[in-house]
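User: Fold this, then the next.

Assistant: Folding the first:
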Amino acid sequence: MEKLRILCAVMVFFMGLPVETWAEANPFEKEVNVNIGSDKEWLIKDKTVTRSGSDTSDFYHIFYDQKQLRLRITGDAEDSEASARQYQQFAVEDILVDGERLPLFQWCLINQPKHSRYLQQGLRVKQDVCVNQGEKGAFVMRLNADTLDALEKGKTLSFKIKPFRSSINVNFDISDFSEAAAKLNAKVIPVQKEQAPVTVEKKVVTPKICKANPPKDFIKIKPVDYACDDAAAKARAEANIEAVVTKERELKAKLIAENERKRKEEEAAKKAKELADIKAKEMQAALEASAAAAEKEMNAEITSKMLAVCEKKWAKGEHRCYCEKYIDKAPAGIVSDPSCATPK
């Protein structure tokens, strides 16, 4: 009873704690904040504008091209697909402007199949308004007028993402976004008069793609693509594969341990049943032996009493049929009475 009171008191104590205290108690529930301020200048190039910043290990790039907004995570300062991080289970949990969720992001959640808790890698949103490209370290959102207006009026744009176990809040200062967007809109490529236009053909070089493959025993794990001539991308791809393989091995080890535990429990239960059956048989045999001994003792007592009665009759020279059973113990003068025989 005392232990129950203590347990109840502990539960009441923890239920009274604020949510922040619970988060501190669980290291996997902690959120990481990455703040990218206005000191990081907007890079206006061609028909796009980009702001980039980093934490200790990753670079975050917000990209706008008058049609869409894109967040990309890379391993170095270059905002390119070749340097992009590659994730197996990338989640976009929220997009907020000044702390308020964008209605367009809410629409994407509602129009994603299976669930609406977060945008999940591998699930397609209706009309591709939002695209989770975790395998390329990116998230893309097609803009509408209301969303663009919110961005131009906002101060902070926040992406809440979950590439691994912990959530990351990537907060961009967009207080000067409207100015950068205006410069982008006003940007005009000058054309020299009285000169024939020069057409420069750009040779598109498609990088050769290699794959980081999982071990043969892990066929369910998808290979990770990387540019063959990019050593850093290769290392990241192999590291991602190794992380997933390690997790799968841990799950397999837990499953084997659980199966072994169940096998031992079943074996122990079987032995316990066998032992119980043996004890039950021994108890039954003991009861039967006890009953037989009791019956024997009772018969001996009855015989003793009947002999005492018969001996008195025999001493008088009399014989009774109830003594016929004991005639072999009668004196020489007493003879058997055939009429006392039990009819067949």
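Now the next one, as you asked:
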Amino acid sequence: MPENPWFAIDEPDEDDFYEFSATELAFVEALRERTASWAAAGVEGLVGRSDERDSLVAYLDFCDPGLPLHLVDIGVHFYGDRVRGDRLHNQLYTLTDHPSSWALEATGTIEELAQQSADWFVSVLRKPVVLYVWLNRDRWAYAARFAFADTNQTICQVYNTDLAPPGQAEELAAAGHVHGKGWIQTVGLPAPTLYQHIRGDLSAAVLPPGIRAVTKRGPIGGIWYEGW
């Protein structure tokens, strides 16, 4: 296989051994040939197997170098004569239950599927990723949200009740902007105070009107969790 940093095989743990078939390895080789010239900071391309063990998974691991923080895994499941691509579960590498508007589904030969997957990965790398930040009294960052700014899809988020305006968390919960055991969904907040462009084509972003752009960020405390 070509020597490049993209789509290296992620070695499993000793208790989680798996092998790849000749067909799967041929797909990986074809995909690596088509991505050998890529250059993208803050992204790593890997190959593994989904937790369901029914398919090879080639995926991009997006990180925010400013924190550092793992943001999201985006990948394709290869089934021999077809591929499916979308956002992946961050531990199981399974596909999302609700496909994104930019999800991939294609059939064809190994070469055709490798090309379609590579083209799709390029389109994902171009998607604008921004960090939205909400300030209380224009001083304390009480919430933040990484999002694909072209489709307004949450990647991950944080909400700090201790720093938020009094009563806001209760209002958000009453309005249904909560998931599971109290995970506040920042899509229910008013317009963010500022944003920082993280990666991708910012010209494709649809930003809230009047939001302030920054190139540096202050401290953002709290536990980060996925968006739903």
